[in-house]
Amino acid sequence: MYKKLVILGGGESGIGAALLAKAKAYDVLLMDEGSLKEGYRNELVKAGIEFIEKEIDEKRLLEADEVVKSPGIPEKNQWVKKLRAARIPVISEIELAYRHKGDSRIIAITGSNGKSTTTSLIYHMCKQAEMSCALVGNIGYSFAKQIAEDPKEWYVAEISSFQLDDIQTFRPDIAVLLNITEDHLDRYDYKFENYISSKFRIAMNQTSNDYFIYNLDDEVITDYLRENSIQSNKLPISMKQEVVKGAFIKDDEMHVQTGSEQMEMSVYDFALKGKHNQFNTMAACVAGSTVDIRKDKIREAVQTFESLEHRMEPVATVRGVEFINDSKATNVNSTWFALESMTKPVVLILGGVDKGNDYSAIMEMVQEKVKAIVCMGVDNTKIVEKFKDVVKVVSTSSAIEAVNDAFKVATVGDVVLLSPACASFDLFKNYEDRGTQFKEAVRNL
């Protein structure tokens, strides 16, 4: 076992990794170039973990036997480059957690869109079935910290491509790959194939005892599977064809079969609406069935699930205008799904930090459903240029301004939809902060 462990980055995953490493008797040092949040700093002090903030001690970093890197730190970071040059192993927090999980089992979910919703629905299912389980990973609670403080028999983990980039042995018992669309290309040398390979790392270490649930209607996924073999048991989900094992929807009826168990359910009974959520629900039902959750419990979970904050979240109806917060839509595809589920005329709030977005993907949806676009960002040039000849486009630089301008354009029966298709850190701390400010502005109308 490596003894001298340096944790690079002091966010949720870094603190979790430090606490687990300390509990497992590693020699731990945490470093962050920025300043730590007070709560995190207090946790480290309380646990007696050494940390350095606002700088990196290069000598001590390069003396590490192994480094746990925050998923937010890119490969092009100078310290990561130095670690690579020195051949010091760099792992992610989920890799460290995996090594110390004991006999616990993992359901891991990835994809460009729908991860949080599907992860939360599977967790809701496990809770309904009274399983010993925890919700971890990219969704908010550190996997490593959960293992250190309150281990469970099952972990339902939302996993991003950034977390998968630095795994070595991480192997979920059940892996779910929802879809792959162009996202985060700035982190993958603007090569889509690099991002695709990163997503498929979720199944990299799986064996014939494991399960791989995937979207059969996603051409990017099926093209990859034609060229590359996966060792686990494949369970496809589809809306276009009937499958023997997995799940499909035909004539508004979902059919699920994993082992000898079969289950049918009408899509009209799903708590989550919209076509994309039918895929998310199918994936969750297959996962639930694979871990032998009873049919009645799966059905109950699907009917009682409440959607997440910042994901197609109804905020309020003000003088006949409905406001929806989809701040979690940080890529173009997410915004496409949001528009696809709209049945009323839309005033769309778009914009933020562009990650190499191609807005052509939503052009048809905009022409069909959007009456005006309100840009909300520091630099709105790309969006304005793309849509100015198609719909009315207004530029703003704050949530309050965006909400007020959208409300002016909207008429009774319209929807004002915040679905930005961009990252948030030009004007906001993160997508949660963006969604919260949007809701606040709506309530102050």
UniProtKB/TrEMBL annotation:
Annotated Mur ligase C-terminal domain residues: 310-422
Gene Ontology, cellular component aspect: cytoplasm
Entry's EC annotation: 6.3.2.9
Pfam families cross-referenced by the UniProt entry: Mur_ligase_C, Mur_ligase_M, MurD-like_N
Record localization: Cytoplasm
Keyword set, alphabetical order: ATP-binding, Cell cycle, Cell division, Cell shape, Cell wall biogenesis/degradation, Cytoplasm, Ligase, Nucleotide-binding, Peptidoglycan synthesis
Xref: InterPro entries: Mur-like_cat_sf, Mur_ligase_C, Mur_ligase_C_dom_sf, Mur_ligase_cen, MurD
GO molecular function: ATP binding; UDP-N-acetylmuramoylalanine-D-glutamate ligase activity
Function of the protein: Cell wall formation. Catalyzes the addition of glutamate to the nucleotide precursor UDP-N-acetylmuramoyl-L-alanine (UMA).
Family: Belongs to the MurCDEF family.
Protein name (record): UDP-N-acetylmuramoylalanine--D-glutamate ligase
Gene expressing this chain: murD
